[in-house]
Structure formats: C-alpha cells, structure tokens
TrEMBL record:
Complex formation: Monomer.
Keyword match Disulfide bond: yes
GO terms, biological process: cell differentiation; spermatogenesis
Descriptive protein name: Thioredoxin domain-containing protein 3
C-alpha cells in the first residue's frame, strides 16, 4: 500500500482533457509518460524519475506525470501504440519527445533542461526560444495516420531445417547475415510445434510429400531466427564520370573525362533476397509477412515483445588487462548494481587484429603500438550484457575514450572510477550499435553445435519445453 502511495506522489495522474490543460499550467519542466489504458504507464523508468526528483527538485521546478492517451483529445495520435512515449513540457509548451524507454537519453534531457531553467531564473542566461513540437504533422493529418519518430522495427523469421542444423549450417547463416548488417534478435534451436510448421509452409501444403515433411520438421531440432534490419539503406561507392572544367584559353578540344568515386545510398537487400544470393535458400526458409511473423513470435517466444517494448538490448563489454587483473570483481558488482544481466563472460588474450579493432579510436596516438602490445600479452575480460537500452547505457556508463576527457565531462563514469595503468585511455570498451554488438558477441562467443537425444517416450510438449529452456 505504501509503495502505491509513493508512485502516486512521484507521478501525477492525468486522465482527462481538463486535467491535461491544468497540467500545462505547471511552472518548470514536466515529464509526461504517455500510456495506453490496456498496458499502463512505463514502470521501467520510475526508479530513474524518483532519483531525478530527489536530486533535482529542491526548487519545485520538476514534475512527473502519467497521461492516459485514451481519454485525452490532445494525445489522440498516441492511441493504440505499444511503444512508450515521453513528452517534455516546459512552462506549458511541449518542446521534446523521446520514443521508447531510453533511460540515459531521458536522464540527459531532464538534467540539461533543469540546469538551463535554473540559470534562467538566476539571470545567468536568456530563455531560449523553444519551438513547440507538433504531435501531428501536416503529412500525418493528410493521411490520417501518425508516423513515429522511430519507426517500428520489422521482423523476419527464418527457419533452418533440422538436417542443416546437424551440418552446422545455422552457424554459417548467423555469421553471414550478421556481417551483412541484419540484427539477430533471437536464435533458438527448438522442435517446432506442428501448427507453426503447417502455417509457415502453407505454400507447399499441396505437395504429395508434405505430411512426411511436417513429420521431419516436428521431430528434429530446427534453428529459428528472428531478424531485424538496423538500416534499410546501405552506402556504396560507385564510379561516375567527372568532367574537368579547366581548359586553356583559345583552345577548343574534347573535355577530358575521368571517373571519380561517388558515395550513394541504395536500398539494402531483403533477408530473402540475401538468402537467395548466398545460395542458402535450400536449407533456410524466410517469412517476411509481418502479421504471420508476429503470430509465430507470440507462439514460440511469448516474452519477446515485452522485452522489446522496454528496449532490452544485448551489448558486448570488454575490460582491459589492468582492470581484469586488479578490479574485475568491483566492476562486476557495478555491472549488477546498474541492472545488467551477464549472459556470457570469459577471460581471453586478444589477437593483434582484435586488439586493433577494440583500440581503433586510439590508432593515431603515439602510444598506439605499445597499447596493442599490452592488450595482446595480457588477459582481458569480455562479457555479453543485457538490460534496457543496453548498448547506449553501457557506453554512457564507461565514459569517453580518454581519462582526461572523462574527468572533464563524465566524472562519475567507470573510466574515472577505475582510472589506472600506464596509458591515458579508457580501460573499458563497449559496442557502438546493436548491429556491432551482434557481430562482436558472435565473434567472442561463437555458437556451439548442439547434439540432442530425444527418448521415444518423451511427449511432443515436453520436447518443446526442454529445448526452449536451453
């Protein structure tokens, strides 16, 4: 009961247009969690809000609100959306919007706006002329649909057949599509339910051996991949003709034509197109229909959508040798306290190529060669970490690339807390993006082949349960 009371005190409830209009009279900054009645407010950020309120609200200029989109006319564009949305109202004007439960971004936005507001009140700076953001733009109104700042991810589902899994083709497929820029959200070896097989392969249901095919697919381990694409466009270099414009006075001659490289954007291949081009379609089948994929995800991976709604991500973290040797246990405690789940971890000695990749941002420094020598002759520690907005959160937590920069801009970062060694560099590394994390985790934690023996008396339901729990 006490817990519920604290939550009400933390975030005021706005569930009507009148209350919304009253809320806009707040002085200072109001952070608004826009939610749907069927799913409720975003609980993932409440601890952050409580921390910010305790630390920043001495002057009563920071307010937190939960607003139910279903009953507020102004919030009509956000109805029937499952991804969290946070609006920032400054003295009654909506000036910013953050899509998704991006805690580090929300934290930075609040701290920046509150700091500005205090300076304005103290007469240290003029009030910026913020432009109120439209909740519906002209194009949205014309077409009657609201487009979010961050478009919803589109997923494909790929099934690698049991015979191919036994030949370890699943490892080959994973490596190739990750290298191409696709993000593997889920990879599971499991025995497929008959209903999934029949619906996934409905296009071949009229073939005479279909029943035999269904039997083989429901009695062996298939590898199921749920795949997204981080960027639908790829930048390619093309050589286009270029004409020299300089010519000697009075001389008429054909202009000299040379070819210069030009960077252009092209639409990336779909997963199916890529499979066809790589000759993997014989043993790997793809479904790209969004409705069907969503249904399959609900059946096979019922927790996936909940995880994605809070933007749970996996990232690669690396502790440099000095940290690995002297401070590893303390760092692991920090990792746990920051809400990360450690999925995998191992101690390794980096190859020269790996060290150059990890330390690439320092390659123009005089100490680079010595740093590489240090990294390749001592143990480092690599981890696969998961938490909400994990990639960006870990990068923010470890701080910038050098100790000097960290002291100036991120004094609370791990770079400062664990500053040590003979180099002026950050002793921690993190993946730069979800796609990079996918590739790096696959590299440092390569998937192992699995041999499963299914006893004759084990039921079909038990097979699914046991294989899914691995």
């Amino acid at each position: 009961m006490a817990s519920k009371k604290r939550e009400v005190q933390l975030q005021s409830v706005v569930n009507s247009q009148n209350l919304w209009d009253e809320m806009l009279l707040n002085k200072g900054l109001t952070v608004i969690d826009v939610y749907q009645a069927w799913c409720g407010p975003c609980k993932a950020v409440q601890s952050l809000f409580r921390k910010l309120k305790n630390e920043l609200n001495e002057d009563e200029i920071l307010h937190f609100v939960v607003a139910e989109a279903d009953n507020i006319v102004t919030l009509q564009p956000f109805r029937d959306k499952c991804e969290p949305v946070f609006l920032f109202s400054l003295n009654g004007k909506i000036i910013a919007k953050i899509q998704g439960a991006n805690a580090p971004l929300i934290n930075r936005k609040v701290i920046t706006l509150i700091d500005e507001e205090r300076k304005i009140v103290a007469g240290e700076m003029d009030r910026p002329q913020y432009v109120e953001i439209p909740l519906v733009d002209a194009m949205d109104e014309e077409y009657g649909e609201v487009q979010y700042e961050s478009a919803a991810e589109v997923y494909n589902m790929a099934i690698i057949k049991p015979d191919a899994v036994l030949m370890r083709k699943n490892i080959e497929v994973r490596e190739k599509i990750a290298k191409e820029g696709f993000v593997i959200e889920i990879q599971e070896n499991l025995i497929l339910p008959e209903e999934v097989v029949r619906e996934f392969y409905t296009h071949i249901a009229d073939q005479p051996d279909f029943e035999e095919f269904v039997f083989s697919m429901t009695n062996g381990l298939s590898c199921v991949l749920i795949v997204s694409q981080e960027d639908s466009e790829v930048i390619q270099e093309e050589t286009l003709p270029k004409t020299d414009t300089e010519e000697e006075p009075g001389v008429l001659e054909e202009p000299h034509v040379r070819f210069a490289p030009v960077m252009i954007k092209k639409k990336r291949d779909s997963l199916q197109d890529y499979m066809d081009r790589q000759h993997m379609s014989d043993y790997c089948d793809v479904e790209d229909d969004a409705v069907k994929v969503s249904k399959f995800i609900d059946i096979l991976f019922p927790d996936f959508k909940t995880m994605k709604s809070t933007n749970v991500q996996t990232t690669l973290a690396l502790l440099h040798p000095d940290i690995c040797e002297e401070e590893k246990d303390d760092v692991l405690n920090v990792i746990h306290n920051e809400g990360f789940t450690i999925l995998m971890q191992r101690q390794i000695i980096l190859s020269e190529e790996e060290a150059r990749t990890v330390c690439k941002i320092h390659e123009n420094e005089e100490y680079f060669d010595n740093l590489i020598g240090h990294m390749t002759s001592n143990h480092s520690y690599v981890l696969a970490l998961r938490r909400e907005n994990g990639v960006e959160y870990w990068k923010t937590l470890i701080g910038p690339k050098t100790i000097e920069e960290a002291y100036a801009s991120h004094p609370q970062s791990l770079c400062v807390q664990f500053a040590s060694g003979n180099f002026p560099t950050n002793q921690f590394y993190g993946s730069s993006s979800k796609a990079a994390a996918e590739k790096e985790i696959a590299h440092f934690f390569p998937p192992q082949s699995t041999l499963a023996l299914i006893k004759p008396h084990v039921t079909h339901e038990k097979r699914i349960h046991r294989s899914s729990s691995r």
